[in-house]
Amino acid sequence: MNQRVRINTTGGPEVMQLIQDEPQRPGPDQVLLRQYAVGLNYIDVYFRTGLYPQALPGGLGLEGAGIVEAVGDNVREFQAGDRVAYAGGPTGAYATYRLIPASVLVRLPDAIDFETAAAVMLKGLTVAYLFHRTYALKPGQTMVFHAAAGGVGLIACQWARALGVKMIGTAGSEKKVAMAREHGCWEVINYNAQNFVSRVRELTDGQGVPVVYDSVGKATFTGSLDCLAPLGLMVSFGNASGAVEDFSLLDLSKRGSLFVTRPRLFDYVASREALNALSGLLFEQLLSGGLEAQVGRRYALSDIQQAHRDLEGRELTGSAILLP
Known about the structure:
- By secondary structure, the chain is an alpha/beta fold.
- The protein folds into two domains: 2-121 and 269-323, Medium-chain alcohol dehydrogenases, catalytic domain (Quinone Oxidoreductase, Chain A, domain 1), CATH 3.90.180.10; 139-262, 3-Layer(aba) Sandwich (Rossmann fold).
- Helices cover 31% and strands 27% of the residues.
- It has helices spanning 42-49, 114-134, 151-163, 174-182, 196-203, 221-226, 250-254, 265-268, 272-288, 304-312, and strands at residues 2-7, 16-21, 30-40, 63-71, 83-87, 97-101, 105-107, 142-145, 166-171, 187-190, 209-214, 228-236, 259-261, 295-300, 319-323.
- Helix 2 packs across helix 9 (272-288).
- The chain is globular and about 60 Å long.
- The model has no long low-confidence stretch (mean pLDDT 95).
């Protein structure tokens, strides 16, 4: 029997319903996957609230790991019994079994367990494209990364240290500041106690940084621009505090001909070659010890409403996973 979470309408955590049904047979290009761990990510909230639209009724969740149960007629890359993981659409990861396109799956090395994979696939691939594709960081550079103690942030702390990059992180409490430091962040600013723009300027001798990675959105966007050196890049890859408000392009010119991008993981893994390359970078970090998964909390599928309340309330540090 399959358990899965369904939403019939958008809204708060209460719109998520746990239902039971029988696993279906895969279509020609699909795989039936038995999931042993599923990732919980803030992007799931965007789909639940309707900020990111999808057809309803629908599922939630974009990340998981498990064993292939059956494959469709056209699938040649995988077979029953393969250990696999994924991060990306379509939604529907909150389930014991799910049908999923074979094109989004990658083989999971035997040395990486399912919980680790579910905890890092989406967040780790995000850091991989941010650090290696959106802006290719180089050893010795200094950059700013907001929400440094979150699921993506703690991976970024470790990855930046492995690259020899000085990461200036921001966090909202002394506990989170300490956690980011423990995971390799070069300097961490408590934005509730300090003005992060002034502190970044101080740490960079007034020069600013070449790139800012910002998943917070509305609350930090303008300040992030003010942290950049001339010709710097603002990478706005989320909006946990709300959508960024309209701004004038002249604001970029006045601050030194700045660049702004709003990237999505899905565009960076659109081909099999790109997906394998980025997941290879992630697995390399895990297997070399440069990156360690931090599972902050585990939830049963039946606790999904509370899991989303904790997620939205910023009660979580590290990664959270569901155990179907």
